[in-house]
Amino acid sequence: MSEALEKIIDDVSVQMKKAIGHLEVEISKIRAGKATPQIVDGIYVDYYGNPTPLSQVANVMVADARTLTIQPWEKNMLHPIEKAIIASNIGLNPQNDGNFIRLFLPPLTEERRRELVKRVLGEGEQAKVAVRSIRRECIEQVKKLQKDGLSEDIAKDGETRIQGITDKFIALVDQHCKDKDKEIMTV
């Protein structure tokens, strides 16, 4: 019976690592003042009726510290790419010159930095909710095992271990948010 408990506890770590991985991806998309191609990751373009990642229909390059250039493989994709960027709500307005789309990153004002920090904290809160949800589901599985014959002491020990893992991952979420906050607020 404790083998099932060990499997539940192993699953907790695996699922929580996935939640942290998702958080890392999401906060890497939040710009900290420098142009990076990751800013447009996650933008999907309508490519002949199929949602396709922007990086698969265009070349995304960093022209300088504050400018991204996007050169589509097909010229007729300029307008759909422009539309997708506007719809993605990344806070940048595309400039279409007929061959390229340019994204100019404005210098970050104090107010904008605070908005970005709020976004980072929002992503962190979503990650914490995901971690707590995983904890809740796994504790329910432990309680189900207890109903099926697992001793109460072993079940309580399992719940304590799951809570310890949860606390570790919540602290990791906080650390990621703190690091990104520092990166954004550094002028």
Describe the structure.
The protein has 187 residues and is an alpha+beta fold. The chain folds into 2 domains: 2-29 and 109-185, Ribosome-recycling factor (Topoisomerase I, Chain A, domain 4, Orthogonal Bundle); 37-104, 2-Layer Sandwich (Gyrase A, domain 2). Helices cover 59% and strands 15% of the residues. The protein contains 4 helices and 6 strands, in the order αββββαββαα. Strands 3-4-6-5 form a 4-stranded antiparallel beta sheet, with helices on one face. It has a two-stranded antiparallel ribbon with strand order 1-2. Strand 3 and strand 4 form a beta hairpin. Helix 1 (2-29) packs parallel to helix 4 (152-185). The radius of gyration is 22 Å and the shape is elongated. The mean pLDDT is 86.
Main attributes of the structure:
single chain, 187 residues, alpha+beta, Topoisomerase I, Chain A, domain 4, Gyrase A, domain 2, 4-stranded antiparallel sheet, two-stranded antiparallel ribbon, 4 helices, 6 strands, 59% helix, elongated
Quick one: CATH superfamily of the largest domain? Ribosome-recycling factor
Q: What global shape is seen?
A: elongated
Instruction: Work out the count of structural domains.
Output: 2
CATH class of the largest domain: Mainly Alpha
The proportion of residues forming helix, as a percent range, comes to: 55-70%
- Biggest β-sheet: count, sense, barrel? 4 strands, antiparallel
Strand order of the largest sheet: 3-4-6-5
CATH topology of the largest domain: Topoisomerase I, Chain A, domain 4
Distance between the termini: 56 Å
Structural class: alpha+beta
What is the H/E string?
HEEEEHEEHH
Counting DSSP H or I runs of 4 or more residues, the number of helices is 4
Number of DSSP-assigned strands: 6
**CA gyration radius, whole angstroms:** 22 Å
Kindly estimate the percentage of residues that lie in beta strands according to DSSP.
5-15%
The overall pLDDT, averaged over residues, is 86
> What is the CATH-assigned architecture of the largest domain?
Orthogonal Bundle
Low-pLDDT stretches: none
